[in-house]
Amino acid sequence: PQDRCQKVLLSATMPKVLVEFTKGGFTNDPQVVRLDQEATVSEDLRISFITCRSMEKDAVLLQILSAIQDDTEKNKSTRTGLTLIFCATRHHVEYLTTLLIASGQQATMIYGTLDHEARNANLAAFRNGTKPVMVVTDVAARGVDIPFMDHVIHYHFPPTAKLFIHRSGRAAR
User: Residue 173, CB half-sphere, CA atoms under 13 Å: how many?
Assistant: First the structure.
């Protein structure tokens, strides 16, 4: 009976091809290892959604960054102010970084085709807080590990839930 339960559990949680593979005689005691647990959000993460008209998006972002800056100044002992902003393309990253710098924000950027020296310099400026706002694409953000980051902003909402979790989880590690 226990063996039957295990087979039912395996077939309910695993794709049919994989269930057939486990029955192939390679092992008498197949173990189930779940790899989808990364799709959970940390309990320490607070999520907020702000909706606005497309034409107001840049102004809303500037307002949010101003509030973050004020909060960081008031709570220096517990806040870094480091804010990562995700955009869809390199062109959006360049546009947004230019806008932020023009509005007085200390911002930097990373995107996939940025040369290695510039990438390292921009990442160092972000990590040490000289430029506490960094605008990135998803591809460019891979392998970037920044401890003690306070905020992640999805300027362009990610196309999948898994990508949302991956992006947002950077601030809740």
Answer: 14
